[in-house]
Amino acid sequence: MPKVVDHKQRKQLIIDKSTDIIAEHGFDELTIRGLAASLNMSTGMITHYFDSKDQILFASLQGVHDRFYHRAEKAIGDQHGIEAIRRRMQASIPLAKSVKKDWSIMFQFWGRATHEAEFSKYMKREHSKLRQLDLDHLAYAQAHGEIDKKHNLEHIFEQLDAMTTGMGITSVFNPSRLNKNSTHAIIDETLQQLKKR
Prior knowledge:
Blueprint: H1 7-25, H2 32-38, H3 43-49, H4 53-76, H5 81-92, H6 97-113, H7 117-143, H8 153-173, H9 180-192
Helix pairs in contact: 1-4, 2-3, 4-5, 4-6, 5-7, 5-9, 6-7, 7-8
């Protein structure tokens, strides 16, 4: 009787292994031949699911974003407004090993997005989803009196986005400067300034 192959599981296995290679060695070290060898597969098995290395890279990057949104949704729960923003930001900071891994992968793709149109287009599209998520909660907060009407929500998002990115970079490259208590305190102090006086 022929062996039943779970193609979805096998494809995910390829994505997971490629993600590990990118995180540990950089995507320049990822090759279809090397990936196949590390999984005890033939190169033909890899190319059955992915036509090119770039397809594998995009699949790994999509996994990073999927995990980001899953963490955000789990952290936010049924909260809205300022509290939802606080929880989303806290969940985004790479303090846990798994989150740091995703950030280290993201850094590599940022560099590639600066000079490759397809990666730039993809990154902009994903960032627009985050932007809309935060703007929706900021609009809710302003409508319910949590944020003063004088504040420009677009400007607030840019401020919070820049702050989260900065803390993320620091947490990965100089983790001794930030910990859970300090990052949460910084987020709380910043959000407190938005509250209606």
